[in-house]
Amino acid sequence: MAIFSLGSLMCALAPTFASWIGGPAISWLIGARAFQAIGAASLNPVSLAIIMAVFPYERRGAAIGIWGALSGVAAAAGPVLGGFLVQSFDWRWIFFVNLPFCLIGLVMVALFVPETREKRISRRIDVPGVITLSVAMFCLSLAIIQGNDWGWSSTAIISLFGGALVSLILFIIVEIRVKEPIVDFSLFKIGSFTSSSVATFRQLGFVLGVAILISLFVGQIQSNMQQASNNAIQVVQKDTTIPAQFHPLISNGLKQANTNVNSSNLQTKSVNLAQYANNAPPQFRAQARASLQALSDKITALFKQAVVQSFETTWLAAAFGAVVGFILAFVTLVFRRKGLNEQQSGETVEADVARIG
C-alpha cells in the first residue's frame, strides 16, 4: 500500500517533475504508473492474507464475502468517480484521491493487523516458475495490445501467442516438478477448491470482459476505418466516370478526413462528393454530379462495411467469452457436486467409525 500511495503521488506530480528535472511529462507519468502498478498488483493478494490473519476461522467466510462485495462496488464506482474528478477538477485528482484512502489503510494496518510469521514455510523463490510465468504473461499481453496494429494474423502476433502457450506449458511442467511451486496444482484435486477457483476466474472474466470488448472495438474500428479510407482512395483513382482533375481533390479530402469513429457519429458517417460538381464546366455539371453521387455511395458503403465488421468482430469475441463462461459454469457445477459427494462420503465414514467404536 505504501508503494501504491507513493506511485499515485508520483503520477499526480509528473508534470512538476518534468518542469523541475526535465524530460517529457508523459515519460514521467508512464514511469510513475509502472511503479504504482507494483503496489497495486500486491494489494489484492495481501488484502486476502490480512483477512486470513485478522479474522478467526468461523468469521473468515463473512469477511471474504464483504471484501468481494466492496471490490465490486469499487470497480463500478471507480470509473464514475474518475470521470467526475476529471470533468470537474483536473486529471491529476484521479491520483490524488487515492492518498487519503491509502493513509487511512496504512494507519488501520498499523493499529489492528498483527505481525504474523510462519517458520515452517520456506522463503525460497521459485525462479524458473517466475520466469516462465512472466514470459507467458508478457507475450499474451503484448499480443492482445498490439493485435489491431500489427494484424491478428501477422507473424509477430502469432509468434507471441505461440510463445505464451509454450511458456505456459513450461510453467506447468516446472510447477509440477519443483518442491515449492508458485502454484500447487495438487490442490486442484480437491473438488471444492477447483470449483471455487473456476468460479472466481469466471467472475473476473465477466467483470473485465466489458473493458476488453470496448478496447477491442475501439482498436478494430480505427484499423478498419483506416483501411476503408485507403480502399476509398484506390476506388477514386480507378474511377473513369469522373473528370481526372477531380481525383487529387477527392483523394486529398479522404486523406485529411478524420476517420475516427465514436458512438455519436457511427450512424452519420457518409461521404458526399456531389459538391465537387461545381468545379466542372456548366454543360457537364449534371453528368458530373450523377457520377460523383454514385462514387459517394460506393465510398460510403466502404465505411459502413468497416463499421459493421468492427461490430461483428466484437460480437464474435463476446460470443466466445459467453461460451467459455457457460463451460466454466458447467465445470464449476460438476466439481461442486463432486466436492459435496466427497464431503458426504467422509461424513458417512466418520459416522460408521463412530458407530463401530
Polypeptide structure, described:
By secondary structure, this protein is an all-alpha fold. It has three domains: 1-116, no CATH class; 124-183; 187-357, no CATH class. 78% of the residues lie in helices and 0% in strands. It has eleven helices and no strands. It has helices at 2-12, 14-21, 25-54, 57-88, 93-96, 98-112, 127-150, 155-177, 191-238, 246-256, 285-356. The longest helix has 72 residues, at 285-356. It is elongated, with a radius of gyration of 29 Å.
Rounded to an integer in angstroms, the radius of gyration calculated over CA atoms is: 29 Å
Number of discrete helical segments: 11
Which structural class do the helices and strands define? mainly alpha
Mean pLDDT: 80
Terminal Cα span: 54 Å
Summary of the model, kept short:
By secondary structure, the protein is mainly alpha-helical. It has helices at residues 2-12, 14-21, 25-54, 57-88, 93-96, 98-112, 127-150, 155-177, 191-238, 246-256, 285-356. The protein folds into three domains: 1-116, no CATH class; 124-183; 187-357, no CATH class.
Compile the SSE list and pairings.
Elements: H1 2-12, H2 14-21, H3 25-54, H4 57-88, H5 93-96, H6 98-112, H7 127-150, H8 155-177, H9 191-238, H10 246-256, H11 285-356
